[in-house]
């Protein structure tokens, strides 16, 4: 068997070629490890990107609605300025939805479930034995 890139002999037992280790070194240098993060990890750990990641799912849910509103208003959402406006409005609405709608609802549901669960499953020491 031969390597598809350079034609070098391929060891069937290990599937290593001369190209395997440089690729692994490249991956390790960009991603890194928890002790020494690489370039990609350092960029993705920035607070602004981590904060944007908190709202990414909400932006995903709302961006089609924002684009539809742009189309109804007669603005082409594919134009450069419109793309920026759609992203900004989507992030704004996604953040507001996450913080002021979904967050309180999740807390309310968890409190209700905790109250129901504590009534159904009482600790053994509090159960009256007759």
3D architecture notes:
This protein is mostly helical and 130 residues long. The chain has two domains: 1-45, no CATH class; 47-126, no CATH class. Helices cover 65% and strands 0% of the residues. The chain has helices at residues 20-31, 39-44, 47-54, 56-72, 80-120. Helix 4 crosses helix 5 (80-120).
What key phrases describe this protein's structure?
mainly alpha; 2 domains
Quick rundown:
This protein is mainly alpha-helical. The protein is built from 5 helices and no strands.
Shape: flat
Assembly form of the protein: single chain
Low-confidence stretches: 10-14
Structural class: mainly alpha
The percent of residues in helical segments reads 55-70%
Largest sheet: none
End-to-end C-alpha gap: 79 Å
What does the average pLDDT come to? 77
Number of helices: 5
Q: How large is the share of residues in beta strands? A: under 5%
Rounded Rg: 26 Å
| Element string (H = helix, E = strand) | HHHHH
């Amino acid at each position: 068997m031969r390597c598809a890139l350079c034609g070098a002999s391929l060891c069937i037992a290990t599937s290593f070629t001369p190209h395997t280790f440089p690729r692994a070194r490249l991956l390790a240098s960009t991603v890194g490890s928890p002790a020494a993060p690489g370039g990609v990890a350092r960029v993705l750990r920035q607070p602004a990107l981590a904060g944007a990641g908190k709202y990414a799912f909400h932006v995903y849910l709302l961006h089609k609605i924002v684009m539809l509103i742009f189309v109804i208003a007669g603005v082409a959402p594919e134009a450069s300025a419109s793309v920026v406006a759609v992203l900004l409005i989507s992030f704004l609405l996604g953040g507001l939805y996450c913080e002021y709608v979904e967050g309180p609802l999740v807390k309310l549901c968890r409190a209700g479930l905790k109250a129901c669960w504590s009534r159904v499953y009482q600790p053994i020491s509090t159960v009256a034995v007759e």
